[in-house]
Design a protein that fits this description.
Layout lengths: L13 H12 L5 H20 L4 H17 L6 H8 L2 H9 L37 E10 L9 E5 L20 E5 L5 E7 L4 E2 L5 H8 L5 E2 L2 E7 L6 E7 L18 E2 L1 E4 L3 H5 L6 E5 L2 E3 L9 H12 L3
Parallel strand pairs: 1-11, 1-12, 8-9
Antiparallel strand pairs: 1-4, 2-3, 2-7, 5-6, 7-8, 10-11
Helix pairs in contact: 1-2
The structure holds fe (ii) ion.
Length: 315
């Protein structure tokens, strides 16, 4: 053996193959890549042996992955949907963003963020049509001691009242239900939008087929997406959820956390609504974001935004 490995047995059992494959990857120079590859192979082989995967099932899996790849475009990310609906995105999110107590919890980024959301003044309306029920969402951005953070950036996006994101609708080039807001010197922010609606994740591809075959529904409870960032603090990627939603306990992507649920309260009109151009009834929700200090010094907020935006550019 020129590479110094022991002679592999020629009459292989399943376990001999696993051992040989693990050995073949054992010299991976990068220690993290080595750890990941060895664990992946161990679990993958164990899975195949546990379920006694047939050749037909193996070929079906190849077809599903091929179909998922073909469905991906600058407006569709089927692999993120697989990750989300298998709960992997939320596990990675939890592992990656362990927050100190009192900090606003994070949840999935999702595939619908887009570049180019307009900067808007306090009270600006992210909804470009009259559809849906008007809503005012306000609150403060605070540090862990409850001190206001001025000038924090709130990047907001939401599904339209018809349950589609702008990128899924008839004119995907038009931005709608998106905006960037800043907290004022007392940490306050305020935006006008519409009451969020529950919507199904795209289910016309292999993810939808998986949900159907396994008796799962594709619905996500009503929510509004936020990325809140400020210099010197850890940015948080999260949603706020409407407490009245029937899908809170069965979110297709497992993203609901108790601390992110808030009340949308009906108002019959009045001066506050009129101040923001709302003539009739509307709903109001309040939610405070609490940011943890940046680990190891100041965070490069622009870099964080760029990285998030690069992910979102797919949708
Ligand atoms: Fe969403």
């Amino acid at each position: 053996m020129s590479n110094g490995r022991s002679e592999a047995p020629r009459n292989k059992t399943e376990d001999d193959i696993t051992t040989e494959v693990l050995e073949r990857f054992s010299d991976t120079p990068d220690p993290r890549l080595r750890q990941i590859m060895l664990s992946l192979i161990g679990h993958l082989h164990a899975f195949v042996k546990e379920v006694q995967l047939t050749e037909a099932e193996w070929f079906k899996a190849i077809e599903i992955l091929t179909e998922a790849g073909k469905m991906c475009s600058d407006r569709r990310q089927e692999f993120i949907l697989f990750s989300d609906t298998l709960g992997v995105s939320m596990v990675v999110d939890l592992l990656s963003h362990r927050k100190p107590e009192r900090a606003t919890e994070s949840t999935v980024f999702g595939p619908f963020h887009r570049l180019g959301a307009p900067d808007m003044p306090a009270g600006g309306n992210i909804a470009h049509t009259d559809e849906g029920t008007p809503a005012l969402v306000s609150g403060r951005v605070l540090d862990l001691a409850g001190k206001p953070i001025a000038g924090a950036l709130l990047d907001v996006w939401q599904a339209q009242p018809n349950g589609l994101y702008d990128s899924q609708d008839q004119h995907p080039e038009d931005l709608n239900m998106r905006g960037k807001f800043h907290s004022d010197r007392d940490g306050h922010y305020l935006l006008r939008t519409t009451v969020p609606v529950h919507y199904p994740i795209p289910s016309d591809g292999p993810v939808g087929a998986m949900l159907k075959a396994t008796g799962r529904h594709p619905w996500r409870p009503a929510h509004i997406h936020f990325v809140v960032s400020a210099e010197g603090y850890e940015p948080v990627t999260t949603h706020i959820f409407d407490r009245r939603d029937p899908y809170l306990n069965s979110d297709a992507v497992f993203a609901v956390k108790d601390s992110l649920i808030c009340d949308f309260t009906r108002h019959d009109g009045g001066a506050e609504g009129q101040r923001y151009g709302i003539g009739g009834p509307y709903f109001a929700a309040e939610f405070d974001f609490r940011l943890a200090p940046a680990a190891g010094g100041a965070v490069d907020v622009e870099d964080a935004q760029r990285r998030l935006a690069a992910l979102g550019a797919r949708a």
